[in-house]
Each structure stands twice: as structure tokens, then as C-alpha cells.
């Protein structure tokens, strides 16, 4: 895989994401967006098309991308377990920090969340994390980059990640051009956070869950500070994960040494 190949994958995927949001220029697209059930069905169709596109783009590089070792059942189970810990800790810290109380969501809210989370939030986050995190990191490893160089590459790719959201902000969310830079700051900063999570854990399922829940959360408490506590919590858990990996790696190295 060359730099040209990497850029082709990133740019084509970004153009696809921006082109899809052109449907919100039409009254049909705006009307459809107001009905979450119709929007969900359209989203599934778009995700299928995007998956096929990505599969075609990465086809020549599948062995280099190590898909078999990236998508394993054990990594999924670990991600689900740690994800539940993050979810619980976020609410516990929010409750202790702000004094808020439990407020259970309605059955309709849970159903809506579950459908959107499983069929839109998670697959969309998985595709984005694969393209914008896993592929660039693997490219850096293939080219023999140092960790610092891979991080710099990741920052550059995160800029492209934020640019891929331009049409969504303009045509779907009706963001003013004068406010676009400020709006794109969110995807860029969160993209950097997701890059850190992926590089620290090397678990694409975990960073996918973190990403998906950032976009579509469901909590048992209500507070305007939940998103802040969530950010700090998943970063804290990621740091603990990274430290644990380092300790285990050193112990394994000591056992191998004579």
C-alpha cells in the first residue's frame, strides 16, 4: 500500500459521504429526515452501499490490513464488557458530581434508541473507524513509521475525517457558513480522541462503541454535563487499558528472557 493508495481510499470515502448528504437539498430529503423510521431505512441502504464501496477499495490490500486479527470474537466481547463499564461509570460520576437522580427512559425511547444504535450508529461508526483509524494506522505500520509518525498521520487523517462532515452540517443541519468552522471543530476533536482510543487499545470494536454512543447515547440519568463526563470517562478507561497492556507486555517479555 502506497500513500497514493491510502489517499484514494480516504478521499473517495469522504466524497461518498458528502455526496450522500446532497439529498437534504431536496424537500423529499428534508421531509424524510423528520421521520426517524424512514431515515433509518435510508441509512441502512446507504451503509450497505458504503460497505460495498469500502470493500472494493481495500480489496488489493486485505492481507496487509490484517482483517482476521482485527475483527475477532474475543475483541468484541472485551469491547462490550469495557463499554458497559464506561456506561456505568459515566452515570455514576455524573450523579456524584452533579447530584442528579435516576430518570428511566420510556419504552418507546429505548426501542427507538436500540433500532437506531444497532442499525445506524454502530455500523456507521464501524465504517468510519475502519477507514479513518485502522487503515491509516496499518499503513504507518506497513511503511515502518514510528509511533510519533503514525500519530502525526492520524492527526492529518482526522482533518479529512472532519471535512467528510461538511455537507451534513450544511444541508442536513442547516449550519451557516460563518459557523461551519466552529461546527467542524467537534468532529476534529472527537476524531483525535477516537484516534487515541484506537492506538491505545487496538480494539476497533471498543472505539466503534465509544464513537457510536457519542452520537446516540441513552442514559438512566439526565444532566447537561453527561457528554463531558462521558468524554473524561472513556479517556480514563482507555488510559487504564493502555497501562494494563504495557504491564502485561513487560511481564511476558520478562518470562521469555533467560
TrEMBL record:
One of its GO terms (biological process) is CAAX-box protein maturation. GO terms for molecular function: endopeptidase activity. The keyword Protease applies. Residues 115-215 form the CAAX prenyl protease 2/Lysostaphin resistance protein A-like domain. This is Membrane protease YdiL (CAAX protease family). The chain crosses the membrane at residues 6-27, 39-58, 147-171, 192-214, 229-248. It holds the Pfam family Rce1-like. The keyword Protease applies. Keywords: Hydrolase, Membrane, Protease, Transmembrane, Transmembrane helix.
